[in-house]
Every structure is written in C-alpha cells, then in structure tokens.
Amino acid sequence: MIPVRGFDGAVVAVLGLGRSGLSAARALREGGARVVVWDDTVAARERAEAEGFEARRLDRVESFDDVACLVTSPGIPHLYPQPNAVIAAALQAGVPVDNDIGLFFRSLGEGWASFDQPPKVVAVTGSNGKSTTSALIHHVLHSAGRDSQLAGNIGRGVLDIDPPEDGGVVVLELSSYQTDLARSLTPDVAVFTNFSADHLDRHAGLGGYFAAKRRLFAEGGPDRAVIGVDEVEGQYLAGQLSEGRADDRVIRVSSSVKLTGPGWYVYARKGFLSEWRKGRQVGSIDLREITGLPGAHNHQNACAAYAACRSLGLGPREIEAGMRSFAGLPHRSQRVGERDGVVFINDSKATNVDSALKALQAFPKVRWVCGGLMKEGGLAPLIPGLSHVVKAYVIGREPESFALQLPDVDAEICGDMATAVARATADAEPGEVVLLAPAAASFDQYDNFEKRGAHFIDCVEAELAKS
Q1: From CA 415, how far away is CA 419, in angstroms rounded?
Q2: Distance of CA 227 to the CA centre of its chain
Q3: Dist CA 298 CA 347 (whole Å)
Q4: 81: preceding bond cis by omega (within 30 degrees)
Q5: 347, 437 in Cβ contact below 8 A?
Q6: Alpha-carbon distance 241 to 262, whole Å?
Q7: What is the mean pLDDT of residues 30-50?
Q8: Pairing status of strand 189-192 against strand 280-286
Q9: Are 304 and 393 in contact (CB under 8 A)?
C-alpha cells in the first residue's frame, strides 16, 4: 500500500466504493486521515462500514463543512455531461476534488531521496492500445530483471501497490477519466499511444477529450515523452513538448510512416520496428513472428513500449527478448482457437470504431462478429477496413440499425452471440478469421467488454467441441 500523505488528522471524503475508491480510503486512513465514505449502493456502503469506515451522505453543501478534500472514483462525472450531485456540492463548498491517481503522485515521492536509484513512474494514455502497451512495458521490464509493478486502469489499484524498491518502475495505464481530474501528474516517462474520438459526452466533445489526455504531459513535465504521431493531435502534442527537431526528450512513434530527422524516432513498417537517433539507425526488431503482437495496431503498441523501455535504459536485444515471450492480453487480439485453417480471435476490447478498424485491417479475410451499443459518430470511419470483411454477423439489441451503417457488406442479423458464432463458424473457410471486434459498447447485452469476450470464447469452444 502507498499511504496517502498530507492529510494527517484531516477529514477526507471518498465517493464511490469500487476498487479504486476502497483502495483510496484505506491508503488515506493509513496516512493518518479520518475517512468518511459514500456510495449510492447499499451493499458497497456496508462493505466499507465492515472495514471501519464511516458512511456519510455528501449531497449537500453543508456535508463538507469539516472536509478537507473529496476523492472520487474515475467513472463518476465531475463536470460533463453534468457533475454528480456530491461533486457539485463539494465544488460549491470550495472543497478540492481529486482522485486516486492524484493522491498517488502526491504521496509516492516520500523518502525517495534515500534511494541510490530513485524509482521511476511510466504513465500510458491514449485512445487505444493503452492496456497492451502498459502490460508490454511491464512484461519487458520484468523479463529483463527490473523490479516492475503494473497498476492504474489495469491490474491493481494504484494505491494498492507495494512501495517501489531501489531502481523499481511503476507502470500506470491512465484513462482520460483519470488524467482529467488528478491534481498531481508527475510521471518520469509519459506515453501517448494514439488519438481517436471516444467518451465525447464525458468531455463535452473532441477538444475536451484531447485536453484530458494532454494534461498528463502539460501538468507535470515528464523527463521523457513518447508520442504516437500518426494523428494530427499527436503531432501537435510532440511539437508543443519539444524545443526543436533534435530534442530527444520527445520520442516520436509511428506505425504507418518512416520517421526521419535529427531527433529520436521509433517506427514500424511492413512488420519491422526501427529505432533511429541523431540520423542513424540504432536498433531493429522483426515483429512479424511475435505472436502476442499481431497486426499494425499492435506494432504501434510495440513501438511505444520499445521507446519507453529504451528511455529507462534497456537495450534493444533485452526488449526484443521480452516481446517474444509476451502472450498478449485477454480480449485484445486474443487467439482463442483454430480449426481446419480457421482462426478465432477475441477483440472484445474493440469498443470504438478506430480500434475495430485496426482489428479488421490486421487480417485479410474476416468473418466479423460485431454490434452492440453504438457510440456517437456512427460507423463511417470503418469503411477503409470493410474490404477485409467476407461477411458480418451482427449482434446487439438493435442489430438492424447497426447493419444499415455497413455499406456493401454482406451482413446477417444474428442478435445474440451464440447465433453469430455458430453461423460464422459454419460459413468460414480455411485462411479466414472469425473475429469479434464489436465497434460498440457492450452494455446493451453485457455488463462489460470482458463478459462479452468471455461469452464469445465459450461459444467458440462449444462450436469447436462439435467437431
């Protein structure tokens, strides 16, 4: 546990008692704060009270008369589309609002001056690929013998980790919900994977969403910034952070173009990763046979992870060895079976059109299981990948409206996952891939994308067991 410093004897309120909320409450108490908590769910309050926390209604301004700070869970809106009632009361009362990420950075450096090699924090954000990039960095560091912990939006709650050891590394995956509110953001290495439209209602549009991502780089000034520059937002961010083309505090990353110039670059083309610095190549990796990183989108993740690990002092061959033993993450280009030359891939995490497009483009012939709760903006950005689709099998509560947005695609309305997998399996021919890449949220039929992916796996296994 990372005890939260700076609130000894003060009252701190915690809103939302899921994983991050309870973790924050425990860490605050460990640091000497008096913690009061609230969650609209009775069972969540009862769990907290069983651990000795005081539950207090917090939806009135006077509720905050003795409160020094409100700590909120990332899923609770603090500004758009409108603030949660508790957060609105705190703001009216003039009480600072923070989250567990802000508390982490506020508290982590306590006593680090005594280390021979102070620990480092790598923070990863972006629209897609955050989880894979974060997990890959952690895996490569671990494979190279470096002490590493993975936390944030993946793995453990950030305040649940152990205090890092001398020379240790903490790798954090951070969503826009987390970076938008954290009052302290001071990573040593910050990574921006890519950018595409997502969570627009939460951030009041594309500009607000980008501003939330940008805070990771603007608030704390990382020693090294790894920036994906395949979109104009990344190019803009890299330009803001660098003093000139040769400024190697910024490492530019691409999975689509060759990067040239006097700076520090890592890019992937035709399956080969190349590192260039000061105008000469200093490292390369053949990514084509690394089974845990299939497709151009994963090559982008590999480039970002490679750059982060290089900035931490690892050599190219150490990084390559770690990548080759990386198995990938569940629900992200996860290979779940094969029969008669047909491969089954679970990419349930492809909840937006950009991530689904990249999944489609990773395979030449796709039997595509898609559909669900469509996000704002529609499916038009998928058009460049539809030439890879042999046939679509549409699930969700409104599959007809989803299918209507797929021009010139042979689409079968299936409705449920079992029907879609059964029909795709029956139709698939050798050399094709049955791919779940929904391009939509799961909430119309599943609690989360993990449960959707797990159901896909169950349905695939049931079909394969028939042979």
Answers
A1: 7
A2: 15
A3: 12
A4: yes
A5: yes
A6: 16
A7: 97
A8: unpaired
A9: no
Give the amino acid at 129: G
Separation of alpha carbons 333 and 6, rounded Å? 43
**pTM summary value:** 0.87
- Encode pLDDT of 74-106 as tens digits: 999 999 999 999 999 999 999 999 999 999 999
381 secondary structure, DSSP code = G
Cβ–Cβ < 8 Å for 284, 316: yes
> Residue holding tokens 């008669």?
340
**Cβ contacts of residue 461 below 8 Å, gap of 6+?**
336, 337
Of 243, 244, 251, 294, the C-alpha closest to 275 is 251
CB atoms within 10 A of CB 231: 18
State the Rg of the chain over Cα: 23
Task: List, edge to edge, every strand of the sheet that includes 148-152.
Answer: 148-152, 169-173, 120-125, 189-192, 224-228, 250-254, 264-269, 272-277, 280-286
The DSSP-derived string for 73-116 is -TTS-SSSS---HHHHHHHHHT--EE-HHHHHHHHHTTTGGG-S
Q: What is the DSSP string of 20-86?
A: HHHHHHHHHHHTT-EEEEE-SSHHHHHHHHHTTPEE----SGGGGTTEEEEEE-TTS-SSSS---HH
Q: In the 3-class helix/strand/coil scheme, how is 187-233 assigned residue by residue? A: CCEEEECCCCCCCHHHHCCHHHHHHHHHHHHHCCCCCEEEEECCCHH
Reported confidence tier of residue 112, pLDDT bands at 50, 70, 90 = low
Copy the structure tokens of residue 440.
């939509």
For strand 169-173 and strand 148-152, is the pairing parallel, antiparallel, or unpaired? parallel
Going by C-alpha positions, the residue among 329, 335, 381 that lies closest to residue 362 is 335
Q: For residue range 369-408, list pLDDT tens digits in order.
A: 999 999 878 899 999 999 999 999 999 999 999 999 998 9
Parallel/antiparallel/unpaired status of strands 272-277 and 280-286: antiparallel
Token pair belonging to 295: 């497709």
